Amino acid sequence: MRYDIEADWLWQFACNYRCGYCFIDPQALGSKVPPLGTPAEWQDGFRRTGRTWLLHITGGEPTVHPDFVEICRLLAQDHYLSLNSNLSHRSIEAFAEAVDPARVHFINAALHHDERQARGGLDAFVERVRLLKARGFPVLVTQVADTALLPRFDDLVQRMAAEGLVVFPKALRGSHQGRIYPQAYTDAERQQIRRLARAAREAAPELAHHLGEAPSINVFEEERRLEVVDYSGRRCGAGPRFVQINAQAQVLRCGSPVSFGNLLRGPVTLPKDERRCRTSYCPYFCDKYSVAPAVPAGRVGAGA
Ligand code: SF4
Ligand code: SF4
Question: Residue 24: CB within 6 Å of ligand 1?
């Protein structure tokens, strides 16, 4: 992939699932998908920036958007995509037909086991992962390491392995049932998540090779998500090399309200210079775009 800038693109908050650990307000999950821009208008909006984008499409559930397939098809002509999806909507099958897999870096296929079981089981999910893989899309099957599920997680891994799928754990983040994660994980839960992450990596070595560049949602290093890192003060590419696009098509510097313009209403003026971090955002992107402080020479190899 050769791209100039990456965006974490929050299409909309609507979703057909109601996972207990979801950080989106249930009212927003149940909201109507906002009619914002035709596929051609989105294509023009990105073309006007003069950049090649890596667009990480997320939500809510992006596949419930009525123009999901056509927007992706048009944008993949000029840019690269990655996708977060629960694969529960049949539009993912049309996506697999319409979009060039060579333009899709990865699909984070989020299992959401308990919610899916309550809605008819795992069969359709397994079939859609197989379909996507058969078409050449790199698929990362992930499952949130919900504390209610952890006692059953190993069993889930085995059942999915029997279907030929490797499940990567994703650490909980933020507030869940009155506790703040990942801080609230017990030592035993942390050990289990580390073990599950290591086992998933070892079970799917070809995936990292296939992807080339590490996925932005880097579940290959999920152990890092068990720690809380303070990124403030770090030099970071947020702005010139990474932005958030919100549900109103505004282009923002990661978690800050600084707007560089609107893709549908234009113009978008991206900054040239990197700055130091003064806000907070998703740690996957913080890790990718910020420069970690140098470790003092005496500390190297000292062991923690
Ligand atoms: S599928 Fe994702 S967006 Fe939808 S309820 Fe579950 S966690 Fe939230
Ligand atoms: S480290 Fe994270 S929060 Fe800070 S500027 Fe970079 S992307 Fe934004």
Answer: yes
CB neighbours of 228 closer than 8 A, spacing ≥ 6?
182, 183
289 lines ligand 2 (CB under 6 A): yes
Measured CA to CA, the distance from residue 86 to residue 34 in angstroms comes to 20
**Torsion-angle region of 256 (φ positive above 0: left; ψ -120 to 50: alpha; else: beta):** beta
CB 166 within 8 A of CB 197: no
What is the per-residue pLDDT across 201-244, written as a single tens digit (0 to 9) for each? 999 988 888 898 999 999 999 999 999 999 999 999 999 999 99
DSSP summary character for residue 214: P
Pocket test for ligand 1, best of 29, 63, 172 (most atoms within 8 A of CB): 29
Size (the chain), residues:
304
For the stretch 77-97, pLDDT in tens is 999 999 999 999 999 999 999
| Atom 3 in ligand 2: residue holding the nearest Cα | 280
Shortest-distance atom of ligand 2 to CA 286: 2
Contacts of 275 (CB under 8 A, 6+ apart): 235, 236, 238, 239
Give residue 178's region: left, alpha or beta (phi > 0; psi -120 to 50): left
Q: Which CATH superfamily is domain 5-226 in?
A: Aldolase class I (3.20.20.70)
3-state DSSP call for residue 142?
Answer: strand
Q: Ligand 2 pocket, 277 CB below 6 A? A: yes
In the chain, where does the domain assigned CATH 3.20.20.70 lie? 5-226
Indicate which ligand has the atom closest to the C-alpha of 31.
Answer: 1
- Check if 244 has its Cβ closer than 6 Å to any atom of ligand 2: no
Task: Name the closest ligand to CA 287.
Answer: 2
Strands 259-262 and 179-181: unpaired
Helix (H) / strand (E) element for 192: namely helix 187-203
